[in-house]
Amino acid sequence: MTFQNTREFAKQLDSQDLLNHYQDQFIFPKVNGKRVIYFTGNSLGLQPKRTKSYIDEIMNDWAGLAVEGHFYAEKPWWDYQERFPEPLSKIVGALPSEITVMNTLTVNLHLLMVSFYQPTQTRYKIICEEKAFPSDQYMFQSQVDFHGYKPEDAIVEIKRREGEHNIRLEDVLAKIEEVGEELALVLIGGVNYYTGQVFDIKTITAAGHKAGAKVGWDLAHAAGNIKLELHDWNVDFAAWCSYKYMNSGPGNASGCFVHEKHHNADLPRFAGWWGHNKERRFKMEPDFDPVKGAGGWQISNLPVLSLAPYLASVEMFAEVGMDALIAKRDQITSYLEFILHEIDKEVDSTFEIITPSNPAERACQLSVFLHGEGRNLFDYLMKNGVITDWREPNVIRLAPVPLYCSFEDMYDFGQILKKGILGK
Description:
Blueprint: H1 7-16, E1 26-27, E2 30-31, E3 34-35, E4 37-38, E5 47-48, H2 51-65, H3 69-72, H4 85-92, E6 99-102, H5 105-116, E7 125-129, H6 134-146, H7 151-154, E8 155-158, H8 169-179, E9 183-189, H9 201-210, E10 214-218, E11 237-241, E12 254-258, H10 304-320, H11 322-344, E13 350-353, E14 366-371, H12 375-383, E15 386-387, E16 389-391, E17 395-398, H13 407-422
Parallel strand pairs: 4-15, 7-8, 7-9, 9-10, 10-11
Antiparallel strand pairs: 1-5, 2-3, 6-12, 11-12, 13-14, 14-17, 16-17
Helix pairs in contact: 1-13, 2-10, 4-10, 5-6, 8-9, 11-13
C-alpha cells in the first residue's frame, strides 16, 4: 500500500479498520480537554470500560456472601483462575493445561527457575540478551549467586555488534554453540523492551535444546503482541505480565506456561496449597500432590480482585483474535514509520528508528533516536497530548497498540511532533 501523510488518508484507513470501534471500549486520559494519543501500551495498557463491572461483581459477592463467595459467587473464587487457560492458550499458542495465572512476572520467573535452572559443576551457565530488562538482570544475578556461582562466570550476555542496535540471530546461535556443554539455561525476552526487536523464539529454542539446555522466555512485551506457538516451538517454560498489551491494570497478575512434556516430570518446585490436588485440597493433607499441568506450580490462593481486570481483557482478546490484532498491528506500525520518515524530511533533526525494519523482527513498537533533540521535545509532546516514553539518552518508544490507537492518531502525532521541533 502507498501511504499518504494526510488526514483524509488516515481517516480512510480508519474507515477500513475492522477493529476501529474498539477504541470506544477504552478510557483515555485527557490533556487540555482532549483525548490523548496513547503510545505507552508497552508499559501500561489503557483501562477497558468493561473492567469495572468485573471488579464490582467480586465486591458485591464479597459484600453479600463473605467467605461463601469462594463457592457460591457467580464466578466462584476458589476456581476463578480456571477461566484463563482456554482463552490464554489461544493467545500464546499452548494447550490449556500448559497455562496458569498467578503472582507477578519476576516472581513467576524465579519460581520457574527453581524447576528449570538446575546447575551442575560443569553445566551452570545462563545465556541472556545484552541490555535485558533490569528485573531480569537482577533475577539472573541472584539466582546464580544462590547456587554458589559468580555472575561474571555464569551469566553470558549476547551482545550487539559494534555500531548496531539489534542482536543478530546468527550471533545468538553461535553463542549457544560456543557455550555448549556448560549451558544450563537460555532465558531471553521475546521482545526486547528497549529496541522492540522480536527474537526468533522457535529457532533459538531448538538451538538451546540441541546444546542440552532448558529454554525459557520472558514474554512481557510479547504476550498479546506477537504470534506465539509455545507448545509447537517446544518452549520449556515462559511467563508474561498482563498489564502491557493485555490491559489488566498496573502491576497485575502474570501468566505462566509450562510445556506438557514436563507435567509428569519429577522437577523441584516451591510448592503451596493452591497447587495441590484440587479434589483433595480441603482435606489439609501434609504431603504435596501437585495438580497435573501448569496449575501445579501455583502456590497461594489467587487474588481474585486482581484477576478480574485480567479476565475482562482476556475475554476481549477472545472476541478479537490474535490474527486480526496482528494484521492491524503491522499496518498501523508501518504507517507510523512512514509518518516519521515524512516528518523527518520537513525538519532539521534526524530520526533514527532503531527497531528492525523487517516486519518479522518487530511488533507494536518503534524506538526512535531523536538526533538533535533532547528531553524538551518529549516534554512538549506530553504537554500536547502525546503520551509516550523517554529513555536516555534521547530515545522515545512509540507503541501504536491496535486495540485503541487509530491511523488518524498517527497523522496527528506527526503534526504535533513537527510543530514541537520547528517551534523550539
